[in-house]
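Private note to self, pasted from the team thread so I don't lose it. Backbone tokens:
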């Protein structure tokens, strides 16, 4: 049986372009972000992949990315499930601040720890561990059963909400997840085995 799960980070957002911490804020896609989403859809089409189930967050940049991908696949009628469990990590007090200005204020190392560490939360926000504590139960309850029943599933979400899921899917440690970056608009195609573990992963 085929068990396919595709994860896609949204295309470039207005705040990615402005280099601002975004988190639960809701900026739209830039023109580049729209192009990246079309490109992701075209890549999936070239792979011959269509979907039976689609999940996204409660934030418009991920929803719009999914809409564009489904448009490229001729699947605009596919029902989309939106849930804030897939939202970006809440960046708390950093939300809306410029990342370079934050580095000047708090230092390169501290900002990197807030952005990429597993268990250090930015002030008022969520660590990757906190993010995992909401994304993983949602994945196990809502997404994984669909994949395991042979449905082809796409999830469009965010850099850190996807890093949380990727940590489990790719078996990262708390140390190795620090270096795992997720590019905007690049489909990550996972095939799962009968024990729900990943047997293959590619990025066309
Ligand atoms: O600002 C954010 O919400 C995220 C994703 O764009 O940024 P970072 O890569 O710094 O975690």
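Design output:
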């Amino acid at each position: 049986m085929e068990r396919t799960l595709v994860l896609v980070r949204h295309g470039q957002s207005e705040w990615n372009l402005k280099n601002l911490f975004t988190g639960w804020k809701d900026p739209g896609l830039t023109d580049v972000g729209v192009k990246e989403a079309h490109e992701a859809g075209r890549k999936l089409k070239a792979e011959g992949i269509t979907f039976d189930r689609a999940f996204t967050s409660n934030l418009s940049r991920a929803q719009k990315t999914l809409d564009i991908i489904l448009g490229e696949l001729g699947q605009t009628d596919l029902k989309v499930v939106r849930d804030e469990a897939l939202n970006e990590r809440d960046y708390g007090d950093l939300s809306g601040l410029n990342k370079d200005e934050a580095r000047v204020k708090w230092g390169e190392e501290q900002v990197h720890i807030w952005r990429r560490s597993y268990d250090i939360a930015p002030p008022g926000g969520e660590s990757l561990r906190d993010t995992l504590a909401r994304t993983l139960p949602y994945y196990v309850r809502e997404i994984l059963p669909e994949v395991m029943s042979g449905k082809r599933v796409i999830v469009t979400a965010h850099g850190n909400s996807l890093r949380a899921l990727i940590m489990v899917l790719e078996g990262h440690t708390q140390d190795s997840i620090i270096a795992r970056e997720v590019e905007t608009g690049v489909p990550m195609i996972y095939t799962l085995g009968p024990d729900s573990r990943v047997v293959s992963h590619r990025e066309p």
